Amino acid sequence: MESPGISQDVIYTLEDKQVFNSYLSYIEPQLGSGFGTNEGERLKLLLEKTALFFQGTPYVAHTLEVTDEEKLVVNLRELDCVTFVETVIALTNMIRSGKHDFDVFTRQLERIRYRNGNRDGYSTRLHYTSDWLYNHEQNGLLRNISCDLGGASEGKKIHFMTFHRDAYRQLKNNDTLLEEMRAVEESMRERGGFCYLPKDKIQAVAFDIPHMAILAFTTRIEGLDTTHTGFAFWRDDTLTFIHASSSRGEVVVDQNSLGDYCAAQPSCTGIIVARML
């Protein structure tokens, strides 16, 4: 990473600080008394405006894997589907706190990325999205509304990371981390799976899926819970989603409806829908 600004625990570049300051310049003038008629509408608007700020930001995978030690990596210049969602939520909650400060943002990001906000090694990062959602539902950040929408329970065994350790730099040659991740996967199995909305039901309940709800796309891949994330996005009367797209190479509001997108993905079984609180 060029021109690094590195504290003891946080890694970022000067350009990341510039993007952060540009975000404040963009969002602060919009925060007047007319910004949402109530707290719920204000939250949706804040999530929407924050997500749209990153529209066109390049998609880059593996941006968190820059050091052997688990430090908090901030990259606002390049996003993948997970870091896009994390970043939008962290910036939104920073604004909601009333403290528009880079250090407050990084603390919010750490709270979102790690189990119970505690960064203590690679295995405390919330790698599996269903685990990420569960942890944050327990901590009051969001609520999984998939069952409310008529969803189903998915009880498959999650073990993708430990079964494919060679695909993960930190796990490849570290048996201690491997066992820690195996314990995470076992705890996920013990809680009995997660609720999701099958893709053939999306169209029927689309109008009940809130604007800017968090989406996680469930998969039939063995041992894996989800393969993609984003935010539900109502454009006129069409439900689509905003996401960091690997195929488009940037953050986009997808051109397809949410239902059509899922239907066109053979491995997609449906979506988890979660509402921010």
Task: Produce a short descriptive summary.
This protein is of the alpha+beta class and 277 residues long.
Describe this structure in words.
Helix 2 packs across helix 3. This protein has 2 domains: 4-124, Putative xylanase like domain (Putative xylanase fold); 142-276, putative xylanase like fold. The protein is built from 10 helices and 11 strands. It has 277 residues and is α+β, with helices and mostly antiparallel strands. The chain has helices at residues 14-27, 39-53, 81-97, 102-113, 129-138, 160-163, 169-172, 175-190, 202-205, 258-263; strands at 4-6, 10-13, 72-73, 142-144, 152-154, 194-198, 214-219, 226-235, 238-245, 250-253, 268-276. The model is unreliable at 1-6 (pLDDT under 50).
SSE diagram, text form:
Elements: E1 4-6, E2 10-13, H1 14-27, H2 39-53, E3 72-73, H3 81-97, H4 102-113, H5 129-138, E4 142-144, E5 152-154, H6 160-163, H7 169-172, H8 175-190, E6 194-198, H9 202-205, E7 214-219, E8 226-235, E9 238-245, E10 250-253, H10 258-263, E11 268-276
Helix pairs in contact: 2-3, 3-4
Q: Total strand count, please?
A: 11
Overall average pLDDT: 95
Enumerate how many helices there are, as a single number. Answer: 10
The CATH class of the largest domain: Mainly Beta
Low-confidence stretches: 1-6
Distance between the termini: 35 Å
Proportion of residues in β-strands: 15-25%
Number of domains: 2
Can you name the CATH architecture of the largest domain? Answer: Roll
Outline type: globular
CATH topology annotation of the largest domain: putative xylanase like fold
* Helix residue percentage: 25-40%
Summarize the biggest pleated sheet: 8 strands, antiparallel
Q: Structural class, from secondary structure content?
A: alpha+beta
